[in-house]
Amino acid sequence: MTPILIPLALAGLMHIVQFAVASYMANVDLGPGYTTSPRDRAPSREMRVTTARMLRAYDNHVQMFPFFAAAVLLIQITAQSSVVTIVAAWTYLFARALYVPAYAFGWKPWRSYLWIVAMTCCAILFIAALV
């Protein structure tokens, strides 16, 4: 595996773990009767604030991960991997890993800064692919 693809694989695994943790927390808060249902009605119990934040952090990664994956794959396919692209990919991974607890624990304004770092890394990868 090339150095640019390793952070992509790890980001994919992080995505799965993040989903599993958020789903488990929601199942504990709402009960399996609701979480295994078709959810045609609102839940009868409320989620904890941290659970809701974990689900929102996961949803945010659902939105951002395709940008990262596309950018890394573009770099790989066009054989434009460099120190800059590898650092950008790893920085994305670290920023997203820190984003989860930052969101869960309400680290303000750090959560937003971590989001900006991750999105900037995606932009760097796309720009590098064009050069």
UniProtKB/TrEMBL annotation:
Keywords: Membrane, Transmembrane, Transmembrane helix. The keyword Transmembrane helix applies. PANTHER family: BLR7753 PROTEIN, INNER MEMBRANE PROTEIN. InterPro entries: MAPEG-like_dom_sf, Membr-assoc_MAPEG. It is found in: Membrane. Coiled coil: none annotated. It comes from Celeribacter arenosi. This is MAPEG family protein. Its main location: membrane. The chain crosses the membrane at residues 64-93, 113-130. The keyword Transmembrane helix applies.
